[in-house]
Give the backbone structure.
Amino acid sequence: MDVFFIEYVSPTDDIAQVQMLLDELYSWKDKGLVRYVGVTTHNRRIQRLLVVIAIRRLLCEHRNFLFSFHQCF
């Protein structure tokens, strides 16, 4: 599958559940089942949270390249 995304994350959605769903989608991506993972929302607070989640994931994936962390988030 080329793309799998969560469409319109609402302010009433539980961000912890969204995080768990994203973790599952990223595990599918890591296994090669999905090429790209994405999320849509119209809420700026949620956008910021999702960007932080994405950045943390990238930093954890590349920690040996640029950074050294004791723990990835």
In short: The radius of gyration is 13 Å.
